[in-house]
Each structure stands twice: as structure tokens, then as C-alpha cells.
Design a protein that fits this description.
Helix content is 20%, strand content 31%. By secondary structure, the protein is an alpha+beta fold. The protein has one domain: Immunoglobulin-like (Sandwich), CATH 2.60.40.4150. The protein has a 4-stranded mixed sheet, with no helix packed on it. A 4-stranded antiparallel sheet has the order 3-2-5-6, with helices on one face. Strand 5 and strand 6 form a beta hairpin. The longest helix has 17 residues.
Length: 162
């Protein structure tokens, strides 16, 4: 190993050690059965969004960001049918993140919104033309299901003549 390659490797390790603590990573696992998107590859786009933008943005506006990404785009990838693909995405410093799948003919949910605090891992399963399911571990313990109410204690017997 040359001295120059060694120095570059050491700089890369130092950068990971120093910078890795400052930003959170989200592990995305995308399961795409063979019939996904009618058997054709498609794009996944991960980007920083605000909640209003996410709610009002048209599919065509999101799709345009693949060919002309702006500063909000965190990652793009091609999803191949019949695969499970895993990605590490650097979470935005603040605000939500959208994971969008650009199906040829979307029929239903085609994107997922991840809100702070960001989960460390997200599993997404696709189907022919939509997201079949997404599993995001709860980030806050208060998101646990409510427990049933405890039964009421019986009333104490009344004194005679009262």
C-alpha cells in the first residue's frame, strides 16, 4: 500500500469517526417481489420535505426530481423487481423525510413520510403498483397501544340504618 493511499484511507476513517456521530443514518430495506412495477425496474427517491409540501405535491413533481435533483434530494436508487435491497441514508438535520417509489402506473400509496425523531430502520414491502406495507419501529414509547382500564373496585358495604 502506498503512503498516499494509506493517508487517504486514514483521512476517510477519521472523517467517519468525527462526522459519523453528528448525523443519523436510516437503514432502508426495500422488498420488491418479482411482479413489482409489472416486472420493470423503477426509481426510489429519498428527500427532505416539509409536511405541507409532502401532502400537496403531485407525482409528476416528485418524478421530475430524479432527472433534475435539487438540494432536498438525499438519495436516488433503481429498485429491481424480485430483490431485497438495503440502503443507508443520511437523515436530514431537521424535518421529515419522504421515501417515494416511482411506479409506472401507481395505484395507491407510492410514498412514505418519516418524521423526527428518525427511526434507525425502516422495512418497506412493495407490490405491483403501490407500497404494500411499511414497518417503522416506534421511536417514542408513548406510541405503544393503550392498555385496557382496570376493573373498578366493588363498593364497601353500607352500615345498617345509614
Amino acid at each position: 500500500m502506498s503512503v498516499r493511499v494509506y493517508r487517504l484511507a486514514m483521512l476517510a476513517v477519521a472523517g467517519l469517526l468525527l462526522g459519523g456521530c453528528a448525523s443519523a443514518q436510516v437503514s432502508l430495506s426495500v422488498k420488491s417481489p418479482p411482479g413489482t412495477n409489472l416486472g420493470r425496474p423503477m426509481y426510489m427517491l429519498v428527500r427532505q420535505v416539509d409536511t405541507k409540501q409532502y401532502a400537496n405535491e403531485a407525482y409528476s413533481e416528485v418524478a421530475a426530481k430524479v432527472g433534475a435533483p435539487d438540494q432536498t434530494v438525499l438519495q436516488t436508487a433503481v429498485i429491481y423487481p424480485g430483490t431485497i435491497q438495503r440502503f443507508q441514508v443520511k437523515a436530514p438535520k431537521e424535518g421529515p423525510m419522504a421515501v417515494s417509489f416511482l411506479f409506472t402506473a401507481p395505484d395507491g400509496n407510492w410514498q412514505v413520510l418519516l418524521t423526527p425523531p428518525m427511526p434507525s430502520a425502516v422495512d418497506i414491502e412493495l407490490t405491483v403498483s403501490r407500497i404494500l406495507s411499511d414497518t417503522i419501529p416506534p421511536a417514542i414509547p408513548s406510541e405503544a397501544p393503550e392498555l385496557p382500564e382496570a376493573p373498578k373496585a366493588p363498593e364497601a358495604p353500607k352500615a345498617p340504618g345509614a
